[in-house]
Write a structure and sequence with these properties.
homodimer, alpha/beta, Rossmann fold, Rna Polymerase Sigma Factor, Chain: A, 2 domains, eight-stranded mixed β-sheet, 14% strand
């Protein structure tokens, strides 16, 4: 167990824990005492029909969705019971750095998107007694989990909104994620995952951040100096003063656990590799919501999948921030997201 | 001096050397005995009006342009006298690994695109007595040199065709190139540039290649399995069996010399940072030729510059190979390049 203040209640809370207990993994191995950290907004109605589930993205926590939720928003806590759940390995839920033997640090087992969704299913059904989700919505790896929910538990998911993510990860995306992984593991301070503090891997985490600076945004982001949206005065302040410190505060093994999982997100595992068959299982009304400037979940990849989902529409979000549009630094981003989610939630 | 067979006559030749002699650099410092490696095709006519200059791209050599030149092609050696010149630091012309003290290896000075073009000017005028270039054409860093030629020596350049490159490097492109640099310099085997063989930096060069795999091609390249165009049977063979060995055979300090230069390509250095004023100097007829799927020299960045060049047209090359379309693995690429260059060469 390593102390890392980033994941504290004070920094990314409030959150509560749910004890899933012993949890068998798709890749083999067991988490002896899986706990999911989650945060709820609003109240579950008596019929238990107003629940919305929101899974987290790579490097993110439940904190990231605060700006997506509020009175008067599409995700309105006065109308819905919203559960934001931290994915396994994200540093808040059970993760390498907060686990003891036999799954501490470099010994942490491989996790699949399917593991997350099965664990979330336990949370949703056993903790809250929910058998129907009005909506599953999430960005990036949250979109991967959203797709997995819709394919794995079609009877339970009424609506789904995968934002800036795919049902089956692409080869290009796999290669991109590998560069993020290698930036960390190539740091001598990483020591095969046996560092004693994440600060020993600052160089690798910094290079990891630098690759995000290239792929996470867009060429127009820099042309138009949109780093100003992050409250900085220069591109150096954005990369050196914002992105690097952000990623350098995270746990390396945690990022690697998520990255491995991200690379292999694939709902066609349910149908012997037949993606069309997997997506055809979905009964939810689905809005597929890519971001137009996304460099690694491009619109055309998302549109290909959308075409295979029976009751679906493609809703492209415009954001010159590219994938990091998800951070919600622009009002126009939330205007579009809220508009689409309202329409989706209003559909039968 | 380090032996590296990659740059040998046998591998990337034939080429000849021109001794430029002592050469002062824009960033300060001197190359005591600068030599440029070049290759010519065809015969200079009596009026010396049929010369075409072709500068090399990052990591490339004069060998790379063999597939651009030939009888019946736009760059027809039966009609034109074509000089393909290796940029300074590319491993063939004067470079860190083939220089002795005081500029060997890590002591090699910073080179600017302007240094290349001034050295090439000496070659063209003093060796060949040429005072007019029918065309300057080059891809990527070759495009940067092409722009520099057209701005620095406007009276000498009749036509210019920058392919997949910009006159002023963008911030996004700078950040991308930095990840390529850091992949090499972060390898403990790099030893601050004082390795005794490039093979000691194989890990860093491999990660450098892996970043190219993400940014050098396109998402469609992988979706459509276009690695097959490179004669391989799987994406692993493309990345592990082609890209990694390719970059791992190169000299790390050479790549770093070129990368530093690439990051700072900027014709507005001639006009106190005023890009419009610099491009307005150009009297050549210019075809600006970006590649539609290029991830770091996107069409819109090139189009912005084209709009500032008086006698110019935007000619977009379609290639799902993205930036690596330059390698010419598709017939359709050369059909477009030849078509545009023929039109340009036919213009007054």
């Amino acid at each position: 167990m390593i102390e890392n203040e980033f994941y504290s209640q004070q920094n990314v809370g409030p959150y509560e824990y749910y004890q899933v207990g012993e949890f068998e993994l798709e890749e083999g191995g067991v988490i002896p005492q899986l706990q999911l950290a989650y945060r709820t907004y609003g109240t579950l109605n008596e019929q238990k029909t107003n629940a919305i589930l929101v899974p987290t993205w790579f490097s993110g926590t439940s904190k990231n969705y605060e700006s997506y939720i509020g009175p008067g928003r599409a995700l309105d806590e006065n109308e819905y019971f919203i559960i934001v759940v931290n994915q396994i390995g994200n540093g808040v839920s059970t993760s390498p750095h907060n686990s003891g033997s036999p799954i501490a640090m470099e010994a942490f087992p491989h996790i699949r998107i399917g593991d997350d969704v099965r664990a979330q299913y336990v949370l949703v059904t056993e903790k809250f007694g929910i058998t129907e989700l009005a909506l599953v919505v999430g960005g990036s790896m949250g979109a991967q989990q959203t797709y997995e929910w819709a394919v794995r538990y079609p009877d339970m998911v009424k609506r789904a909104a995968p934002i800036a993510g795919t049902a089956k990860n692409t080869v290009h995306d796999f290669l991109f994620t590998q560069t993020l992984i290698d930036a960390i593991t190539s740091d001598p301070g990483f020591k095969g995952g046996r560092y004693t503090s994440h600060t020993e891997v600052a160089d690798g985490l910094g290079r990891h951040a630098d690759i995000w600076a290239v792929m996470g945004l867009s060429t127009e982001f820099y042309q138009q100096e949109l780093w100003r949206l992050f409250g900085v005065e220069s591109v150096e302040q954005f990369t050196q003063g914002f992105l690097r410190p952000l990623f350098q505060s995270l746990d390396p093994n945690s990022l690697l656990t998520m990255a491995w999982k991200w690379q292999r997100g694939d709902v066609s595992r349910h149908t012997d590799g037949d993606l069309a068959a997997a997506l055809n299982r979905i009964t939810a009304k689905v809005f597929v919501m890519p971001i137009d400037e996304d460099m690694f979940f491009p619109v055309r990849d998302c549109a290909r999948e959308q075409a295979l989902i029976p009751n679906s529409e493609l809703k492209v979000i415009e954001s010159r921030l590219g994938h990091f549009g998800l951070f919600g630094a622009e009002d126009s981003y939330f205007e579009q997201v809220d508009c689409y989610l309202r329409e989706l939630l209003a559909s039968p």
